[in-house]
Write a structure and sequence with these properties.
It is built from 5 helices and 7 strands, in the order αββαββααβββα. With 180 residues, the protein is of the alpha+beta class.
Length: 180
């Protein structure tokens, strides 16, 4: 555990304010769920909760199936990072924070398909080698959970409408799985 030197008091309703610098660094937004852990020595740990984490193995299998059947790079991201990947070296993208542009795209809750000449949207921070070919938001009961992506390398041609439909189908399926 890393000490921050920041001390906050609990108010009369049992609340504590998480400082803005920490919220920004950890990408904690208003309304984000936090999981609470306790330690034997009396410590309390708050950890961002990702409902997509419960589907990580399932999302990984879906990426493997899409990748092996299409030859494409398939990825699934929750609202913070890429949680499943197939078709690219895992060390380059897996568990990497989503790019700011991808976060904004997901917040719009719209499907995306790259067109030649358009600005490229990187999937993850610092992963300049790959950009979005298509992306489809994962929605569960109206809440944004993440997105399914097919990625392109630097010299790959744009993807087709069928590729976009595949990503939308996968995203819809994962959203339905989260509702169960």
């Amino acid at each position: 555990m890393k000490a921050t030197g920041i001390v906050r008091r609990v108010d009369d309703l049992g609340r504590i304010v998480i400082p803005k610098e920490i919220r920004r660094t950890l990408r904690i937004r208003e309304g984000d769920p936090l999981e609470i852990y306790t330690e034997k020595d009396g410590g309390v740990i708050f950890r961002k909760y990702s409902p997509m984490g419960d589907l990580q193995d399932f999302a990984s299998q879906m990426c493997d199936a899409i990748g092996s059947n299409t030859g494409r790079i398939a990825a699934v991201a929750d609202r913070d990072a890429i949680i499943a990947l197939s078709g690219a070296p895992k060390r380059e993208l897996l568990d990497k924070p989503n790019s700011e542009a991808l976060g904004k795209l997901m917040e719009q809750r719209r499907n995306y398909r790259y067109e030649t000449g358009a600005p490229r949207i990187q999937a993850a921070d610092g992963a300049d080698k790959y950009h979005l070919g298509v992306a489809a938001p994962i929605l569960s009961q109206g809440d944004l959970m993440g997105c399914v992506m097919l990625l392109l390398g630097e010299n790959d041609a744009p993807l087709s409408e069928q590729d976009q439909a595949l990503a939308q189908t996968a995203a819809s399926f994962l959203g339905k799985q989260m509702e169960n």
